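Appendix B, record 7
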Amino acid sequence: MSTTAIDVRGLRKSYGDKTVLDGIDLTIAAGSIFSLLGPNGAGKTTTVQILSTLIPADDGELHVAGYDVTREPEAVRATIGVTGQFSAVDELMTAEENLLLMGDLHHLDRRESKRRAGELLEKLDLVDARGKMAQTFSGGMTRRLDLAMTLLGEPSIIFLDEPTTGLDPRSRRAVWDIIRGLVAEGMTVFLTTQYLEESDELADRIAVLDHGRIVAEGTPDQLKRLVPGGYIRLQFADMDSLAAAANTLNGALRNGHDLTLQVPSDGGIGSLRAVLDRLDHARIPVDGLSVHTPDLDDVFLALTGHATGKETEAALR
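Structure tokens (predicted):
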């Protein structure tokens, strides 16, 4: 496979008069994690379905692993794996039986299927679940088995469409560690998610998708730098100190015993020093401080006018 795993030019898809994807361009490097970030209904799943040959595009030049998605769908399918939002696990079968069934679908002989199944059960920490019915599994175990089934065909590129939806924080982080391990072995991961933290933790590059269009793309740090400024929050032991600081720092917002001050940079050392020097010169004691720099939620809000995912993330913590 070349240094480019996925190349997309002018991808379009509509259903009737509703445009779902409106001319998307993407270039994804081999051996990297690429995250497509956006709210529900943004077009993330449709993108995965098209690139994995499940549904046709209306227009665009699409190449996956060097193969033309439209003209060479079988070659594309032979090189990819897909884990969707909804588990493909058969709950009335054991973990090993699910994997062996997947081996049959890949036309592997039974000996090879057993070998690969054993390796994957160990890799994904499912050895103890080998002979247990999947209906007894926790959500995290089910997602790991689902991922093992995706990996049984030894794909070079995997599409993970919101792979941690509904998982508790501990299970989500376990899946993250698995994904990092796969990429360390040379695999390419195309990840769709509405969880901002997930993109920030995993992705080498992120594209922000909103209403069928890519509104920004870059590394997590590059995207955060699109939002200017940061915030310094100052805490004071008494209301007199708070009032004096508010008079000294024009534009600071009061909240209880705190002041929040926007700074025209990234909230780094220079910004902190300038604020503290002014307070020290005025002999105003500071009880504590914290710094907030732009995160992906700020980026999405700035680019699209609405937030995504953070409320769901908070509910899962």
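Remarks on this record: Confidence is low (pLDDT under 50) at residues 309-317. Residues 230 and 263 are 5 Å apart (CA to CA).
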